[in-house]
Write a structure and sequence with these properties.
The complex is a heterotrimer of chains A (about 120), B (about 100) and C (about 140). By secondary structure, chain A is mostly helical. In chain A, helix 3 runs antiparallel to helix 4. The model of chain A has no long low-confidence stretch (mean pLDDT about 90). Chain A contains five helices and no strands. Chain A has one domain: Helix Hairpins, CATH 1.10.287.3510. With about 100 residues, chain B is an all-alpha fold. In chain B, about 60% of the residues lie in helices and about 0% in strands. Chain B contains five helices and no strands. In chain B, helix 4 packs across helix 5. Helix content of chain C is about 70%, strand content about 0%. The longest helix of chain C is centred in the middle third of the chain and has 24 residues. Classes of the chains: A mainly alpha (about 120), B mainly alpha (about 100), C mainly alpha (about 140). At the A-B interface, helix 2 and helix 4 of A face helix 1, helix 2, helix 4 and helix 5 of B.
């Protein structure tokens, strides 16, 4: 755990910290919209980890030189695979937000402990 | 009490993740296992096969165009799901039709 | 929301945002970008119009039947481009062997069917974002 190890792999360590922060947000806050924000933070950390696997030291962006001078390029393949993942993350967020609209119409609140209290009162009738 | 347990579990998960980064080759090394002959083929021979300089756009629209079609289907499915769920919205919030005692 | 400065500034700046979105879509094979960011920029310009001028005017600018047809038409255009490969005797979605115009690298009309697929993806993503936004913020008025 030397300082040089942390500075060289700073992308991987940042992705782990973002994942743990997102998971703490999902587990702790009782508001439903904050849980969805936590899920989005976890997805962002996975994208960061996957794209920074393809980095090559001293490489440039993968747009080829038109006059043919050879250069070292960054690996383009993980970036092309993550584009699909980003769209899937947006779809999941949109669907979860529409379910929150229906929950608000049914219960009148979006705090989780109040919803559980309303449901347990109705179960005792 | 519950909060201390959550902190302990998340700290353990963080320690496991960081200790597994020590076994991987460091970031930026040119001989990591993902820089194989598929990426070399896409970088070397895409200019004469497709005449377009942007390699990532060539990958997602020419070499792997079926994955982009599948992803357009995912967008289509999400719109279908949202329009189905939100077609019967109630007018007033609180105690909708299914929750009278 | 009913703010005078927001309405004035957004009326001046929305055509430039749409021009930038069309630029990113059409130069998808020459510079970073492509179909997905270009479609998101076009969708964001209509969302800015809806937020500044109210939901009723936003519905008039991009009505429901137009965005429905744009979205289905874009995915049909993608599938027709793939079928050209089958009709000429090769696999689904072939580029150079199916007879598309290639050109010299570095110009807009080059690269086979890559600009056409980028336009299809851009229109689909833009109309998806607009439809989802208009569905979520519409409110029932008392009839």
């Amino acid at each position: 755990m030397t300082f040089q190890f942390i500075v060289q792999n700073i992308n991987y360590i940042g992705s782990s910290f973002l994942f743990v922060i997102g998971l703490y947000t999902v587990l702790t806050h009782p508001n439903l919209i904050k849980k969805i924000i936590g899920i989005n933070i976890m997805e962002t950390s996975v994208f960061l980890l996957f794209v920074s696997i393809g980095f090559i030291q001293g490489g440039q962006a993968p747009i080829l030189n038109l006059d043919g001078t050879p250069a070292v390029y960054v690996n383009p393949l993980p970036s092309a695979l993550i584009l699909t993942g980003i769209v899937v993350a947006v779809s999941i967020t949109v669907y979860a937000l529409s379910m929150i609209i229906k929950i608000y119409d049914a219960y009148g609140t979006i705090e989780l402990d109040e919803i559980m209290q309303i449901r347990s009162e109705e179960a005792h009738d | 009490m519950k909060r201390a347990l959550i902190f302990l579990a998340l700290g353990g998960m963080l320690a496991i993740m960081i200790s597994s980064y020590m076994q991987m080759p460091p970031m930026g090394n040119p001989d990591n296992p993902s820089y194989n002959e598929v990426a070399q083929h896409y970088l070397n021979r895409s200019l004469e096969e497709t005449r377009a300089p942007n390699v990532i756009a060539v990958i997602i629209t020419d070499y792997r165009a079926i994955d982009t079609l599948g992803e357009a289907t995912v967008l289509f499915t999400s719109i279908a799901a949202v329009l189905t769920v939100l077609s019967g919205k109630d007018k007033k919030p609180g105690e909708g039709g299914a929750h009278h005692g | 929301m009913d703010d005078l400065i927001v309405k004035y500034i957004s009326r001046m700046i929305i055509p430039f945002i749409q021009l930038y979105g069309i630029f990113v879509i059409f130069h998808g094979h020459l510079s970073p970008g492509g179909g997905f960011p270009g479609g998101a920029i076009l969708g964001a310009s209509i969302i800015l119009y809806t937020l500044a001028f109210g939901a009723h005017k936003g519905h008039l600018k991009m009505p429901h039947h137009l965005s429905k047809r744009l979205e289905s038409g874009a995915i049909l255009w993608y599938i027709i481009l793939g079928m050209v490969g089958i009709w000429t005797g090769h696999l689904f979605l072939t580029n150079q062997a199916a007879g598309f115009f290639m050109g010299t690298p570095g110009e807009i009309f080059s690269g086979g069917f890559i600009p056409l697929i980028t336009v299809a993806i851009g229109l689909k993503v833009g109309s998806t974002i607009i439809t989802l936004f208009h569905t979520m913020i519409e409110e029932e008025h008392d009839a």
